[in-house]
C-alpha cells in the first residue's frame, strides 16, 4: 500500500542480525517500535525462557533499534520522532502479567530517558499506552469471555481498543501536530487507568 516502504523480516532478539539489517536501511526520520510478546504466567510460575524472551523483545530490541535509528537521525542532522508502543499494563498490576507489566514499565522509563538525551538532537520520543487491542495477540490472551468481561467492566468506555485507535494516536505523535510533545505517555485505554 505504501511504495517506498521496504519491510525487513528478522528476529529482533537477535542483536547482530538486527544491527546488520536496520543499520543498512534508512535514512530514517520516524520510528515506531511495536514488536512485543505477552507470555502470561503467574508470578510464582514465571520461567526463565519467558522472562528472557519478554525482555529481549519488549525492551532490549526497542533500545537497540532506537539506538541504530537515532544515530542515523543525528548523522543526517534532521529532526525525528520515535513512538514506542507500551501498554496500560505499565501503570497497573494485572494478574499473570508480572513479566509483561515489568517490561512495559521499563519501556516507559526508557522512553523518558531517550526523550531527555535525544531532545537536544531534535528527536522526540513518546509512548502510546493502549488497553487491550484487538490484534491477534489480544484475541489470544483475552478470548475467555469471563476474563475479558472483568477487564471491560473496568474500562469506562466499555470496550477494548481497535487497531485504528492506536494507529491514529501514533500518527499524531509522529506528526508536527505534536511538535512540543516529548517524554509523554498517551493513554489509549478507554479510561481504564482512571477507574
From TrEMBL:
GO terms for biological process: glucose metabolic process; xylulose metabolic process. GO terms for molecular function: carbonyl reductase (NADPH) activity; L-xylulose reductase (NADPH) activity. It comes from the Eukaryota. The keyword NADP applies. Keywords: NADP, Oxidoreductase. Gene3D superfamilies: NAD(P)-binding Rossmann-like Domain (3.40.50.720). The keyword Transferase does not apply. Pfam families: adh_short_C2. Belongs to the short-chain dehydrogenases/reductases (SDR) family. Homotetramer. This is DER reductase. The lineage of its organism: Eukaryota, Metazoa, Chordata, Craniata, Vertebrata.
